[in-house]
Automatic annotation (TrEMBL):
Entry protein name: Uncharacterized protein
Family note: Belongs to the class-III pyridoxal-phosphate-dependent aminotransferase family.
Listed PROSITE patterns: AA_TRANSFER_CLASS_3
Keyword Kinase recorded: no
Organism in which the protein naturally occurs: Cafeteria roenbergensis (Marine flagellate)
Record has Secreted as a keyword: no
Chain coiled-coil ranges: none
Highest taxon, organism lineage: Eukaryota
Assigned keywords, A-Z: Pyridoxal phosphate
Molecular function terms from GO: pyridoxal phosphate binding; transaminase activity
Entry-linked Pfam families: Aminotran_3
Gene Ontology CC entries for this record: mitochondrion
Length: 474
């Protein structure tokens, strides 16, 4: 492995990322929800949302192999599979999208770039609104509205045509409460509308609002109820259109619906799809409302050499059939529900687990520093918020007595604990279960496993999580 790492560093771009950079995994085989490394060790894959129906699903492999052995070429020949696949894919959308059309591309970044071109063509406007900490792709267009990547030292930086809306996180954001509370959603939507009004007043016009329907890079955030409805209304009132990026969260992962935007009771004008629809094969798509798609015509036609090529279409069709035939939406609801409930139960016993959130097989847990009430009171005293140091000490003692109680003195969330989250993920990996850590403060344990994840896998994940938490805690 050391030699492979050294050689990889020599021949690949020096900063091409690996998972677990401190101890990269050399994986040689995948099957269902498992990955196998070069020594034959099995890992339960709790993270890989690309291999949606399971690593190397036999029906998907067979469809790819058969089509590859029969014909593969560019997408400009008449071929039935891509037409059948587009028709079936559209049938998973609500109206009016289901009466719209599909453009096939090869990656999520390409899908968002094409969505941007279509939005600009349709509206005549140029600017984009996005949610802070979002990631929408690595192209020079999409990186500009991907604060997750550009907003670091050495990052490309934000373009002047991009307007960033605050993360609508009900746990750690400006308006706190339950994500199911419409008042929280309305408060964030009102902030977004005010920001967009300011943008319009300064003479800039937004062609599109891009948002994931659950925030993955933003830390597995479930959007508060009514948020998208409010922001969509504000964007549309200014003549812009709304793009749902379902590259990570879509295709049945939420369990209750095919698409996560449906849980927010909105219908976007454009939806971008990627990762899961190809189960690991480079396949992505842009689904567009008919009227919007008609504006995208410069008289030259649209052409994408590999977008919707016969093998990609055969793979996409096979994946879609497996999701339907194996009832994976219902399974995501039941297995994902058990996973969230299990996280919550562990959180009851361990104060290091803060907010647990998600939908279906998209679950996140904040790892936090348990609140030290005495410390808080002392800090309040130091800030001069309490009349005198003596009063602060008395208050500290009183609050320290209450520290064991569930009631907190104020509604500020406990501080994120990145190091502990990373230690837990590392220990779980050593014990054969893969989870990711992400979010703006690097403290959210993320799970978004292949949809064949079972109740037994949930039990194993939870018991390893609890064991790792106990071991990692200083
Ligand atoms: N949108 C989202 C939400 C993503 O998570 C990603 C990939 N992480 C992309 C777009 C870009 O997709 P790709 O890497 O296939 O270009």
């Amino acid at each position: 492995v050391a030699a492979l790492i050294a050689e990889r560093k020599r021949v690949l771009g020096y900063n091409c990322q690996l998972n677990y950079p401190w101890q990269p995994m050399a994986v040689v085989r995948g099957e269902g929800q498992y990955l196998y490394d070069h020594e034959g060790r099995q890992y339960l894959d709790g993270v890989n949302n690309v291999c949606h129906v399971g690593h190397c699903h036999p029906k998907v492999v067979a469809a790819a192999a058969e089509q590859l052995a029969t014909l593969n070429t560019n997408s400009r020949y008449l071929h039935p599979t891509v037409v059948e696949y587009a028709r079936d894919l559209l049938s998973t959308f609500p109206a009016p999208l289901r009466d719209g059309c599909v453009f096939f591309v090869n990656s999520g970044s390409e899908a968002n770039d094409l969505a941007l071109r279509i939005a600009r063509a349709h509206t005549g406007a140029h600017d984009v609104a996005c949610v802070d900490h979002a990631y929408h792709g690595h192209l020079s267009s999409t990186i500009a509205f991907s604060p997750y990547k550009f907003d670091h030292a050495g990052g490309e930086g934000k373009a002047e045509w991009v307007h960033r809306l605050p993360i609508p996180c009900a746990y750690r954001g400006k308006h706190r409460g339950k994500s199911s509370d419409p008042a929280v959603g309305a408060a964030y939507a009102a902030d977004a509308a005010a920001l967009l009004d300011g943008t319009a007043a300064s003479g800039r016009r937004v062609c599109a609002f891009f948002a994931e329907s659950m925030l993955s890079c933003g830390g597995q955030v479930v959007l508060p109820a009514g948020y998208l409805r409010g922001v969509y209304a504000a964007v549309r009132a200014q003549g812009g259109i709304c793009v749902a990026d379902e590259v990570q969260v879509g295709f049945g992962r939420v369990g209750s619906h095919w698409w996560a935007f449906e849980t927010q009771d909105v219908v976007p004008d454009i939806v971008t799809l990627g990762k899961p629809i190809g189960n690991g094969f480079p396949l992505a798509a842009v689904v567009v409302r008919a009227e919007v798609a008609r504006s995208f015509d410069n008289g030259m036609g649209y052409f994408n050499t590999y977008g919707g090529n016969p093998v990609a279409a055969a793979v996409g069709q096979a994946v879609l059939r497996v999701v339907r035939d194996e009832g994976l939406l219902a399974k995501a609801l039941s297995v994902g529900g058990a996973l969230q409930a299990g996280f919550r139960a562990i959180g009851e016993a361990h104060a290091e687990i803060g907010d647990v959130r998600g939908m279906g097989l998209f679950v996140g847990a904040e790892i936090v520093k348990p609140v030290d009430f005495a410390e808080r009171a002392r800090a309040a005293g130091l800030r001069g918020d309490l009349a005198q140091a003596g009063a602060a000490r008395a208050e500290a003692e009183r609050l320290a007595g209450e520290a064991g109680s569930a009631e907190r003195r104020d509604d500020a969330p406990p501080a994120p604990w990145k190091d502990l989250a990373e230690a837990i993920a590392q220990l779980m990996r050593e014990r054969g279960v893969l989870v990711a850590v992400d979010g703006p403060w690097g403290n959210v344990i993320k799970l978004k496993p292949p949809m064949c994840f079972s109740h037994a896998d949930v039990r194993r994940t939870l018991s390893e999580l609890e064991a790792a938490l106990k071991l990692a805690r200083p």
